[in-house]
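Renewal narrative, Specific Aim 1. Our central claim is that a sequence can be written position by position from structural information alone. The example that follows is taken directly from our test logs and has not been curated for this report. It begins with the structure tokens describing the chain, in the order in which they were read.
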């Protein structure tokens, strides 16, 4: 398995990979609580239209996961934000997600950012606890881009699924 920048031919695989995780959320949260998570994810082409980087996990020509890092601007400047991390459930628990997070940190570093942020579910094992083990810390009082993202999540009903939190990881420069 290798990590590489997404190619145009990879983009059609991203939404199905993200969608494949829905069953895990239904199993963990229950169908009613997971309902806001089960809508159609953005297509890979929609993701590619946003400023940032998409890195895929390629296993002998098959895309099995991806990470999408956005470059977001607000009054405080430009920020690196981990928008989505998805790995096919059949390929889970093999270090692919951890490797993709490491690549997201590198992408933020190479772009000159001091931190990488994200928003996630606090209590879902492959969300908050996973990111905490990956060096992310909770942002107790989100401001700027994180406050805006958290508000958008509330409007979408994600808080109905379970407690959400904003997190950040300091990105050390070489």
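The sequence written for that structure reads:
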């Amino acid at each position: 398995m290798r990590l590489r920048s997404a190619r145009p031919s990879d983009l059609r695989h991203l939404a199905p990979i993200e969608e494949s995780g829905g069953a895990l959320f239904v199993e963990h949260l229950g169908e009613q609580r997971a309902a806001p998570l089960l809508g159609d994810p953005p297509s890979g082409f929609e993701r590619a239209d946003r400023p940032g980087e998409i890195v895929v996990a390629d296993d002998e020509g098959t895309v099995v996961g991806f990470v999408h890092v956005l470059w977001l601007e607000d009054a405080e400047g430009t920020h690196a934000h981990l928008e989505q991390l998805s790995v096919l459930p059949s390929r889970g628990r093999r270090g692919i997600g951890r490797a993709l997070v490491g690549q997201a940190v590198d992408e933020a570093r190479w772009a000159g950012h001091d931190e990488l942020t994200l928003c996630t579910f606090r209590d879902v094992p492959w969300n908050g606890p996973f990111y905490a083990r990956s060096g992310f810390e909770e942002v107790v009082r989100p401001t700027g881009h994180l406050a805006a993202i958290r508000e958008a999540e509330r409007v979408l009903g994600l808080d109905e699924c379970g407690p959400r939190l904003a997190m950040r990881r300091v990105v050390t420069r070489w």
